[in-house]
Write a structure and sequence with these properties.
Blueprint (H helix, E strand, L loop, with lengths): L1 E5 L7 H14 L5 E5 L7 H14 L2
Parallel strand pairs: 1-2
Organism: Sorangium atrum
Protein name: Esterase
Length: about 60
């Protein structure tokens, strides 16, 4: 699982909670990582989608 969040505006709020979730999941042996992406809630979406698609392609 990848947890994408923007780096601008209110999106920074999600960083610490996402990091905590990833850490707890990793301790259980799950592949969970936080991926900060430039932009805010709306402008970060295209890059997060691109990275998400690439991640899933690598899993095949």
């Amino acid at each position: 699982m990848r947890l994408y969040h923007g780096l601008s505006g209110g999106e920074r709020f999600f960083g610490p909670a996402s990091q905590r979730l990833a850490l707890l999941a990793q301790r259980s042996g799950l592949d969970v990582k936080v991926v900060p992406v430039a932009g805010d809630h709306f402008t970060s979406v295209p890059e997060a989608m691109r990275q998400s698609i690439e991640f899933f392609r690598e899993q095949q």
